């Protein structure tokens, strides 16, 4: 047997056995999968399984991909295989309720005409007119259509969510109604600085994929009955009648998602553009939050030394840490609440704090919090802020953990016990309200969570944080649909290098004092040089006395020495990170192969010992 195994015939037998095993497993276990990725990106989520299990009527999916036109596009073809495999998994899981059609729209064919009829996006590949289709169209029994015009590589992380959203929309074509009151240009508009039109915010565009958004006026005196969820974004100009209407809407069981802000950087209104008017950028909900058991100060901003973002200063300058712009990671995000459980990274810019009122019957559940290295500062500090690191000068944390977003549930009383003049007597209390409040609006702007690209007329979002996921999750949950929540936040977002960021924070705190002292010495030296040379004609430098020349030269030498010390300090900022990189490189190039070699030698030695015995 041993001679057979080591002979050529034996190797052939092993090869045939290998192929037979693969063929048998393909036939007997066609759905067997092993997903070893950390986020299980190749395994359907529970939300997708729920969407597929709830299908009542068949859905047809038409997957268009130009096979011949893409023969040289290896990366795109790999992505196409992933999309096709996932669609086939949807078809298998749907138990006959999804019919998948894979179509190659060759040029001048009926298939190409059908792709164009569905509205799919053809991407031109050459000047000769050759184009590529890579999209999906779906129809239901009511002949309603949903389309993904083109599967962009940049959105690979959102693939399952987009597919599940399309299927869910076709299964339940009546979208939930969201009433929107906004004091910010979320739908685009004219930029007062550039005098150019701005595109709608990508976060709102993603909301419109799932919900029917109905804009409402800021002076509205009643919320329509067909509104499932009321969305408030920077409600700083609400009339008293509108506040009373919101109060009554919530008490009668209406769901509310409110984004307020003590310093909305996106607010470009006339009063907010006046220098120093921080209160012009603030929004509040009047007496409503207090009635729901929440204290909120619209003049105070949360700063956090641990969660502060690194922001660019410009070419040739090291990044600055902005402790008013926070990167809130999983440790500070509620993992128990359905809205935030799947989220890993959120950003929060010059936002406020929500504090539960002692003795309130309404349940206050934090969804997102700061760390203990935080404090509250007046919003005026951000009105004329030029260098973000100015916030670190003299900063002392107050050891409090501040709530940045919260869910309010349970009994609540009206904020207007006397009613409203001109209105019929309203509700005075409710046994169970359901409100989500987030004390920041800038987190919805594109710059705080995504990069937006234009791909042949189609705006593509490349998210690096999950701010839009928080918005859509909250609306999904409040409108009664949780199925898509677990799908949405499985995307391929940028994962923070937590060890590296911690090293950066420690290095900055260690060397910041030295850098500031050297910068001050450099400024003093420059000032003394300027005083010595003031009024001195550069062509008359030869008339200076030897003592004056020596003094100027000593100051110049000191300036060079200080600049060298500054370079050394800034080099030390990254020394620990460079050392970590060197260790990782050594582990990858030497340690791992050495361990594998030792393992093979140990296995060989163990075999020899056994054979001798």
| Quaternary structure classification | single chain
> Ends: how far apart?
20 Å
Largest sheet: 7 strands, mixed
Strand content: 15-25%
Spatial sequence of strands, sheet with the most strands: 9-6-10-11-21-20-18
Shape: globular
Structural class: alpha+beta
Which stretches of 5+ consecutive residues score pLDDT under 50? 270-277
**Count of DSSP strands:** 23
Radius of gyration: 31 Å
Give the rounded overall mean pLDDT: 83
DSSP helix count?
A: 15
Q: Helicity, in percent?
A: 25-40%
Could you characterize the architecture of this molecule?
The chain is of the alpha+beta class. Among the domains are: 1-25; 33-169, Glutaredoxin (3-Layer(aba) Sandwich), CATH 3.40.30; 175-300 and 351-368 and 403-448, no CATH class; 502-534 and 542-573. The chain is 36% helix and 21% strand. The chain is built from 15 helices and 23 strands. The chain has helices at residues 2-6, 8-28, 46-53, 74-93, 110-118, 159-171, 202-210, 240-251, 270-273, 288-291, 467-478, 485-488, 498-533, 546-573, 575-612, and strands spanning 59-65, 98-103, 122-124, 131-139, 145-148, 177-182, 189-190, 197-198, 212-215, 229-233, 255-259, 294-296, 300-304, 308-311, 320-329, 345-349, 354-356, 363-369, 374-378, 403-413, 429-438, 450-455, 458-463. The strands form seven sheets. It has a seven-stranded mixed sheet, with helices on both faces. Strands 1, 2, 3, 4 and 5 form a five-stranded mixed sheet that branches. It has a three-stranded antiparallel sheet with strand order 14-15-16, with no helix packed on it. Strand 7 and strand 8 (197-198) form a beta hairpin. Helix 3 (46-53) packs parallel to helix 6, helix 7 (202-210) packs parallel to helix 11 (467-478) and helix 13 packs antiparallel against helix 14 (546-573). It is globular and about 95 Å long. The two termini are 20 Å apart. Residues 38-138 form the DUF7088 domain. Keywords: Membrane, Transmembrane, Transmembrane helix.
């Amino acid at each position: 047997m041993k001679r057979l195994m080591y002979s050529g015939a034996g190797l052939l037998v092993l090869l045939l056995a290998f192929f037979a095993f693969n063929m048998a497993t393909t036939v007997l276990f066609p759905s067997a999968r092993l997903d070893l990725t950390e986020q299980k990106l190749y395994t359907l989520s529970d939300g997708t399984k729920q969407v597929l299990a709830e299908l009542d009527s068949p859905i047809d999916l038409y997957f268009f991909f130009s096979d011949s036109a893409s023969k040289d596009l290896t990366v795109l073809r790999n992505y196409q295989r992933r999309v096709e495999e996932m669609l086939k998994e949807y078809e298998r899981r749907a138990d006959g309720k999804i019919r998948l059609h894979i179509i190659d729209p060759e040029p001048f064919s009926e298939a190409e005409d059908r792709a164009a009829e569905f509205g799919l996006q053809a991407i031109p590949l050459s000047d000769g007119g050759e184009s590529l289709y890579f999209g999906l169209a779906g129809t239901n029994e009511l002949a309603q259509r949903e389309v993904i015009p083109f599967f962009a590589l940049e959105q690979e992380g959102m693939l399952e969510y987009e597919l599940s959203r399309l299927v869910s929309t076709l299964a339940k074509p009546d979208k939930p109604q969201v009433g929107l009151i906004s004091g910010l240009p979320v739908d685009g508009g004219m930029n007062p600085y550039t005098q150019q039109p701005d595109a709608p915010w990508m976060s709102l565009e993603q909301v419109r994929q799932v919900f029917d958004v109905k804009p409402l006026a800021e002076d509205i005196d009643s919320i329509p009955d067909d509104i499932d969820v009321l969305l408030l974004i920077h409600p700083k100009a609400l009339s008293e009648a509108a506040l009373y209407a919101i109060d009554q809407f919530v008490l009668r069981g209406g769901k509310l998602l409110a984004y307020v802000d003590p310093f909305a950087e996106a607010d470009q209104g006339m009063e907010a553009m006046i220098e120093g008017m921080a209160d012009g950028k603030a929004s509040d909900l009047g007496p409503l939050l207090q009635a729901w058991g929440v204290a909120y100060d619209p003049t105070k901003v949360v700063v956090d030394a641990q969660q502060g973002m690194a922001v660019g200063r410009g070419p040739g300058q090291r990044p600055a840490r902005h402790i008013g712009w926070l990167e809130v990671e999983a440790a500070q995000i509620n993992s128990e609440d359905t809205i935030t459980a799947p989220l890993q990274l959120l950003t929060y810019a010059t936002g406020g704090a929500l504090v539960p009122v002692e003795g309130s019957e309404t349940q206050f559940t934090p969804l997102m919090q700061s760390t203990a290295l935080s404090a509250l500062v007046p919003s005026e500090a951000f009105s004329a802020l030029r260098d973000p690191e100015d916030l670190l000068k003299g900063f002392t944390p107050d050891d409090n953990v501040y709530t940045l977003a919260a869910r309010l549930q349970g009994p609540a009383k009206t904020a207007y016990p006397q009613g409203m003049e001109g209105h019929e007597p309203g509700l005075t209390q409710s046994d169970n309200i359901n409100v989500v409040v987030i004390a920041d609006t800038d987190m919805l702007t594109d710059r705080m969570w995504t990069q937006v690209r234009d791909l042949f007329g189609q705006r593509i979002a490349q998210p690096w944080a999950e701010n839009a996921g928080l918005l859509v999750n909250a609306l999904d949950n409040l409108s009664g649909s949780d199925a898509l929540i677990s799908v949405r936040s499985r995307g391929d977002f940028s994962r923070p290098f937590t060890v590296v960021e911690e090293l950066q924070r420690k290095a900055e705190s260690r060397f910041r004092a030295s850098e500031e002292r050297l910068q001050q010495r450099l400024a003093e030296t420059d000032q003394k040089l300027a005083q010595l040379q003031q009024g001195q004609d550069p062509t008359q430098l030869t008339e200076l006395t030897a003592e004056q020349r020596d003094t100027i030269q000593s100051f110049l030498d000191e300036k060079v020495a200080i600049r060298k010390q500054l370079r050394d300090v800034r080099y030390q900022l990254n020394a620990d990170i460079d050392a970590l990189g060197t260790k990782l490189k050594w582990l990858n190039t030497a340690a791992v192969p050495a361990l594998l070699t030792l393992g093979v030698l140990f296995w060989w030695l163990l075999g020899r010992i056994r054979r001798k015995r």
